[in-house]
Amino acid sequence: MKSPKYFKNNHTMNLGIEILRMILCFWIITYHFAGKINKSKYKILKTFYHVPTFMLISFYFSYSIFISKDIIKYKKRLERLLIPYIIYPLLFVLISFSFHSINIKQIIIDLLIQYISGKKIFGLGILWFIHNLIIFGIFFKIIYFLFNKQSLFILQIFFIISYLLQYKGINYKIFHQYPFYIRILSFIIEMMPIAITGLILRNIDIFKIISNDKKKSIFFSIIAIFFIYNYNIFGEIKGFNYQGIKQNIAGICLFISFSLIPFYKFNNSIILVIIKTITRYTGGIYYLQTFAYYVLSKFEYLNQKSFIKCLLIYIFGFLISFVFTKIFRNNRLKYLFN
To answer: How many domains does the chain have?
Structure first.
């Protein structure tokens, strides 16, 4: 399937989505590190639209990889995910071993659990998201390989099953009794319909449908986000952060809103280059956020300035990712930083 004409413009696709990625990445950092007091003051810090939107974006733009018979592109995508997923826990172990003695048997057990669930080693719980991307990517590729034209219909069945498991409370009942490194597997059920939504939106060519009236599409997307954010219009169900359809709808609306912003009308090349530059490396910033937090926590002044610290975490991750992406530009290790 060809890309919608609206997305062929280099500025439009890159700037709309990349600015959204940057906002989502900073939103995640503030959720993790802005402090309990700020979370109680600012509702947005405990609103979980950021990660679902990232998931939707990932599978929207990966759609062609899953429907294609070109296995090389799929392998490259899997490699891009596996390298940080495998290497960061190993780096953590090596760093820990350098500073103090560790229990070899325990660290091997922790590494195995980390690789199986995406969360066990302290500071690397964020890799659960990459774990989900890998699991979904393998599962979706198998479905497309086995069922061909019926693949999306099969995935829509899993979409429905996932929400049934959430709304009937089955997913919660199964996992709530376990430690968090096992409970994190519940995110597979909560995030699967959001990943499938990304594929569905690309399959129906959503932007070809709505681009004839971009202003109304943006307007109604913003109105929908306003109601979802301010009113309990979908009700609350038990879960582990990403449960329920409201996360999915909010992600769709954010995606549509930013995608349709007409950056193609903006002709200041210097500003465009600046925006393109500062919106890069969100992957590396995401991976490095905990490391950056501990480095910056050494400065007592910053411990009293939560939002400044979050901004510096973002900048720190950006600079490290920028430098090491340049160093490893011809090496697969660049995937650790972008």
So the answer is: 1
